[in-house]
Amino acid sequence: MEIDLNLPVDIQAGTFNVLVSPEELALRALREAVGPGRFLVLYVCGNYSRLLSRVNLRSAEFGIRRAFTSSQLLSILDDAHQTFVFIEHDPSLFAESEETIEHVSTALRELARESTVLLYSPAFDATLQTISRKADRVFYFEHMAEAGGRGRHPRRRSMAYNAPSSEEQSTLEVF
């Protein structure tokens, strides 16, 4: 089943997805997920959030959790029961304990068995690259010419990757 989040790509239910894009695209996806009668959504951020002050969503179906360490993030992921989990990537969570990066990526993959997981970041970093190796799909949008929906991105350059069962990723589509 595809989940329409008003993105230029479709997200499959029960998958672990990484979205690297401008903030406006991530905010649009989050607002669409929380729409009336859509999903039970958990928003997770770290020490610093680019999006939280701009979310402005009030709904009984929208929960917010904040992790200050990678261990807290693992605990939040372990307790998550929502149908859609949106995580704002924060590399500072792994500053003191880089060995937990692999544990977090495995926890995200396992959570995707029961929920749809979308890990968002405005840019790639070494931590995100490591985590994204276990993702089902990685979407990269360099910039957005418009804030509209599908088919209205004349200057957009994006790539979607499909993660095969091995540790390497191969290109799935190029828009």
Describe the structure.
This protein is of the alpha/beta class. It has a single domain, classed as 3-Layer(aba) Sandwich (Rossmann fold). Helices cover 25% and strands 26% of the residues. It contains five helices and ten strands; from the N terminus they run βββαβαβαβαβαβββ. It has helices at 23-33, 52-55, 70-79, 100-111, 126-132; strands at 2-3, 11-12, 16-20, 41-45, 62-66, 84-88, 116-121, 137-141, 158-162, 170-174. It has an eight-stranded mixed β-sheet with strand order 5-4-6-7-3-8-9-10, with helices on both faces. Strands 1-2 form a two-stranded antiparallel ribbon. Strand 6, helix 4 and strand 7 form a beta-alpha-beta unit. It is globular, with a radius of gyration of 15 Å. Mean pLDDT is 82; it is low at 146-175.
Relative strand content: 25-35%
CATH class designation:
Alpha Beta
Largest sheet: 8 strands, mixed
CATH topology: Rossmann fold
Spans of at least 5 consecutive residues whose pLDDT stays below 50 are 146-175
CATH superfamily: P-loop containing nucleotide triphosphate hydrolases
Judged by helices, strands and strand pairing, the structural class is alpha/beta
CATH A-level architecture: 3-Layer(aba) Sandwich
